[in-house]
Write a structure and sequence with these properties.
CATH superfamily of the largest domain: lambda repressor-like DNA-binding domains
Strand content: under 5%
Helix content: 55-70%
Shape: elongated
Oligomer: single chain
């Protein structure tokens, strides 16, 4: 079945690649604009790659990998990252900082609907 399972391969490969590039970019604390500057690639194109909307050429991938100081195969390590809870929380906070206020409020509403906070009883530990 391979790494893509039964999903449409071309779309999922682009999405996985984009997620991986975003992950590596965020590890450096860079914006899409900073990665674009370092890789000499338009930051809007970086955003489209990260959203899985563009299929970058080999030459662009080489530039992105070099800018991220990563070996080219590192861009294709699609396995789930092993992150601690603390790392996940930090990543969520970092992403939240770049989201416009109105969108962040909408995300909060969705999270509250999905995960309502329940007050603990005195008997619960």
């Amino acid at each position: 079945m391979g790494i893509f399972g039964g999903m449409e391969k071309s779309k999922d490969a682009k999405v996985l690649l984009g997620c991986r590039i975003r992950y590596l970019r965020n590890l450096k604390g860079w914006t899409q604009q900073k990665l674009g500057e370092e890789a000499d690639v338009n930051y809007k194109f970086i955003g489209e790659i990260e959203r899985g909307q563009q299929n970058p050429s080999f030459a662009i991938l080489v530039k992105i990998a070099a800018a991220l100081e990563a070996d080219l195969p590192e861009l294709f390590r699609f396995e789930q990252e092993e992150l601690s809870r603390k790392e996940v929380e930090r990543e969520i906070v970092n992403i939240g900082k770049s989201i416009p206020d109105e969108s962040l409020k909408q995300i909060l509403s969705v999270l509250r609907a999905l995960y309502p906070v329940r007050k603990k009883n005195v008997d619960e530990k």
